[in-house]
Structure formats: structure tokens, C-alpha cells
Amino acid sequence: MTRSLEQIERDQAQLVQAVTELAARIREVYDDYLNALGNALPRQLAQASYQICTHGYPEAFLRLRGDQREQLQKDLRQLGKQARAAIVSAGSALPSTEPDGTSANAERAGDDEASLATESGELRPDMLEAALGEQIQVNPEALMLWCQAREQRIAQTLKSLSGEANTLLQTAGVLPGQVPKPVLAAAVDADESEAGSDPPNTLSFVLEVPGKDESARATDGGEEPEFEDREVPAVTTPIAAIRLRLVEIEFADPDLSAQRADVRSLLERLSPLRRRARDLRRARSVARAEAAWRATWFED
């Protein structure tokens, strides 16, 4: 039996209240988590840099003058501070205004989701926050989009930080200069599940460059020499670099790991609310369609 619009409206109001309370809790927990992550990042960056300089390329690091080492370390510390600020700001945009819990407002986010992503599927936090506003407080789909945008911003910050740290190490002469920057960037972007047995927040791989055969066979009569067509072994260079991984940063900090568990727990509570919202939207559409049918149907 189809529920009345009045009953659906009451159920919708209860859902909005539940989402509002959960959104407030998510904001609180995310703020704590991001602050802890921001505090952990400089330490993890310093440890990864230490590993690269002392175990990955100790000879290259020792070739630096004392002032060059100090400048490199200063630049890495400054980079860590910038990363902390970027991470902490990732959770600062959730509106704190009192939500409007009307059904019309609570239904908009699902329709807007497609326009808030890039062609690659990456959410655009700036457009999301501007378009949804207080929807994040009352609509579970909008709230989930907000959480996903925060996670994407964290991941992008870690990738950017890794790339900038590798650039500093390469510019200073620690990382080999012949390694193309796109190769390092591709390695940082690789699937984190491929971490293997590398030290925390570092990666190692082998750069393979095709060998060149410059030998030639002399010919009679002063003609141009003929180059022999033969295979030459490729030149391989082992590479070590920084790749910050969220799972390893959390693993190294028990408090941060516990806060991450709190975030996951809240996101699990969001899933049934999203299903409930979809059911209510469907029920509301059915009830309105039935009412519209009855309003225009007349027996002959």
C-alpha cells in the first residue's frame, strides 16, 4: 500500500534530522583526524627523506657541502609545514549553518552529482561546496560527496608533496639527475598496493634505458663504416624515491590510526541513510504520481 504524502514528509523530516546529527559528528571527527594527519606528515616526510639520503644515496648525500645539506633539510622542513596547512584546510569547508530540512532541499544533491565531477570522475570540491551549500547538512548523498572530496584532496596532497620532495632531492643532487621527472611522477602515481618491501613512504624501481651500439666495422676503399646490427644489453639504474602513503602514515601513528577508524565507522553509518533517502524519493514520486492521476481521472 502506498504511503500518503504526509507520512512520507514525516519520514523525510526524521531522515533530515539523522543526517544533520551525523554531519555534525563527521565534521568534528574529520577535523580531529586531519589535524592529527597534518601533524604526522612533516615527521613522516623527514623520516622518508632521511632514508633516501642515508640508505638510498649515501654517497651522493656525502658529496654535498655542509651548507647544501642544511639548505636541503630546511627546504624539506618548509615543505612539510606547507603540507600540514594543506591537509588541515581539506576539512574546513563543511557549512555549519542551520539546515533547511524541506523535502525539496533534501532531494537536490543526487541530481547535481554528475555536474560536480570532472571528466575523469574526480570530484571538484570548490564546485561541490558552492553548489550544494547546506545540502551537505541534510542530504546523505551530498554528505557522501563531501567526504569523497576530502579523501581525494588528501590523496592529491600526498602525491604533490611526494613529487615536490623528490624534486628537491633531485635538484640538490641526491637523486640521479638523469631520471626524467615524468618517470618519477608516474612512479608516485602507481597503485599503492604495489608498495612491496620498501621502507615506509619510499619506493624503489629499476630504470631501464636501451643500450646503444656505437661500434662500427671498417670497409675497403675509404667508404663510410658500416654499423653492425646487434643487440646491446639495456642499461639499468636502481632508483629510490619518496612516495608518501596514507596507510603507512596512519600505521606509524596509533592515535592517527584510531581516528581513522572513527572516520570509517561514521561513513558506515551513512550508507543506510543513503539507501533510506533513495527509498523516500521513490515513494514520494509514486505518491505524487498517484495523486496526479486521481486528480485528472474521471469515469465516463
TrEMBL record:
Sequence segments annotated as region (Disordered): 89-117, 210-231
Superkingdom of origin: Bacteria
Protein name: Uncharacterized protein
